Amino acid sequence: MTDEHGSPEAGTVGEAVVVERLMPDNPVLRGLFEGFDDVAWELSIGQDVARVPRARWFEFGSAAKEAGFEVCVDVTAVDWMRQRPERFEVVANLLSMRHRLRLRMITTAPRQEPAVASLVPIWPGANFPEREAFDMLGIVFEGHPDLTRILMPDEWEGHPLRKDFGVGSVPVQFKESHKVS
Amino acid sequence: MTDDTKSTQTLDVWVAGTEEPELAPTDEGAQEISTDESETRLDEQFGRVVEDDYVFDDDADPEERMILNMGPQHPSTHGVLRLQIELEGEIIRRTKPIIGYLHTGMEKTGEQLNFSQGGTNVTRMDYLSPFHNELAFSLAVERLLGIEVPPRAAAIRVLMTELNRCSSHLVALATNGMDIGAVSMMIYGFREREQILAFFEKTTGLRMNHNYIRPGGVAADLPPGWKDDVDAILDELPRRIQQYDDLLENNPIWVGRTRGVGVISAEEAIAYGITGPTLRSAGVDWDLRKAFPYSGIEQYEFEVPVGVHGDVYDRYRIRIVEIEQSLRIIEQVMDSMPKGDYRVDDRKVTPPPRARIDESMEALIHHFKLFTEGYKVPPGETYVAVESPRGELGCYLVSDGGAKPYRMHTRAPSFSNLQALPITMADSLMADTVATIASLDPVMGDVDR
């Protein structure tokens, strides 16, 4: 899935190479994508995926909500360490109950500053999933009301689902608990 | 521990601090209890502050406010859920669920196990509905592989998941009853569940954590005489459900403690991504089995119960009706169980039959390869969701072309449904807390994963 992703098919007209933009057939999706020239649509094994530039993440989310995607079922991230120019992929799964439609928004975030806009102002339900993505992969969601660790202990260093976080033995957690009581 | 010793600790995959120097070392040093004993830190540790985005009403008398910690060891939190509750007298003003006490890093583990081993991992997430976890994972793997399971495998999957829905809802009813004080309900619920689990044990070998639904089909065919067992369940359960109705429906205490308690509106439920019986109790007709059918469930007739008030009572009623509807599906599956193979005839995915191994070298090699290396899955990413007893259970699977998932993320219904707690509990009485928690039916294994 590395190379062909996000690159629309090229067609030649005369001498110049004209990049033809792929568009979904579904009218709801088509309407949504027409408003965003820089958002690429693709079909990932039969599922609609929007490749959104990081700067337009929030804007596209708002437009998707307007278009009828009233539920943000999930936000997560993937670590493509040393495999992609931008290390992280942030993935949001949207659902439209009205149109019985799913859409996946994907954006990328660089290693040095893995920050994207939070979707909580649009969908309050993105709160826990974004906290989880922050906890597990260290994605910083700007504008999140309470971006704290959710699954790991507050004092934990590092982000366990990153690929450079090793698996292996971990000492017993409360080995020094007698100090505090 | 100094920084030097930290970075020299070797980890299995990468050595932290050498490959990616910008990152903080990621070892377990931070696991130690924090030595910082400042006032704010201790407040945080003792749960004296609630950090959330709630803007408090300034008119309230601060003297009247009190923060109460409930859990994580409270018996009615269904595991290790901790709630920080801000009380004003008897009334709950705000609630913050604190989770992670059961976090075992199963998504990380999922990246270390190959696709055929993955089932053993995901089945332990939501331990009350293990089949749904396996189904979501298997459907995701199959979608990446581009294989279609035979009709018999799909029908067995529907049979097992719907039986599992019954057993899971029975536990929900049982624990809900116990939390409100109807202790006999707890005993009855677990009694009927045991009958279903006995059938699971007969079929899969285990009562829970089956690893029965696997990519490519199911692990084994249904045992001889399975129809009698399922028939017995179909005979028994409707009669028992009638008894629960007699026990609870006509019980003024039960009705009084559940009606109008823990109310959530349809708008709130949709905005917070709440799914399953909790969403349907608010009057939203949404069931993934109808909306995005999987495993051929669209060929069976069933109805989706929808509530009106969005309260604890509606959620209890919905679970009762869902059991009845699941039994309806099971009956149809039994009558129309297709013949044929119970797993896909693709030697790259499913191991060869036992008899072939004795006579064919290739079969032996295939068998060996499948169980040591596993099979490679083409690169790609997909999201597959099934309707678990608690709501939308999704599996986001990314493969880089290897034999192990590159990323395996589970969209856990209990995890998202917990976001409903602050809404449903706000401005309600402290005494209704346990009823509300139980009606959301969170499974902490699913929440923390």
Can you tell me about this structure?
The complex is a heterodimer of chains A (181) and B (449). Chain A has a single domain, classed as Beta Polymerase, domain 2 (2-Layer Sandwich), CATH 3.30.460. Chain A has 3 helices and 9 strands. Chain A has helices at residues 27-34, 57-66, 127-137, and strands at 10-13, 16-19, 40-44, 47-51, 71-79, 88-96, 101-109, 115-117, 140-142. A 5-stranded mixed β-sheet of chain A has the order 3-4-7-6-5. In chain A, strands 1-2 form a two-stranded antiparallel sheet. Chain A has a two-stranded parallel ribbon with strand order 8-9. The longest helix of chain A is centred in the last third of the chain and has 11 residues, at 127-137. In chain B, helix 5 (130-145) runs antiparallel to helix 6 (151-180) and helix 8 (226-249) runs antiparallel to helix 13 (312-335). Chain B has helices spanning 3-8, 39-45, 106-112, 118-122, 130-145, 151-180, 183-204, 226-249, 252-258, 266-271, 277-281, 288-291, 312-335, 354-359, 361-372, 413-417, 421-425, 433-440, 444-448, and strands at residues 65-70, 82-88, 91-98, 213-214, 217-218, 380-388, 391-399, 407-411. Chain B contains 19 helices and 8 strands. In chain B, strands 1-2-3 form a 3-stranded antiparallel β-sheet. In chain B, strands 6-7-8 form a 3-stranded antiparallel β-sheet. In chain B, strands 4-5 form a two-stranded antiparallel ribbon. Chain B has 449 residues and is mainly alpha-helical. Chain B has a domain at 106-417: Cytochrome-c3 Hydrogenase, chain B, CATH 1.10.645.10. In chain B, a hairpin with a 2-residue loop joins strand 2 (82-88) and strand 3 (91-98). Mean pLDDT of chain B is 83; it is low at 1-32. Chains A and B meet through strand 5 and helix 3 of A and helix 3, strand 6, strand 7 and strand 8 of B.
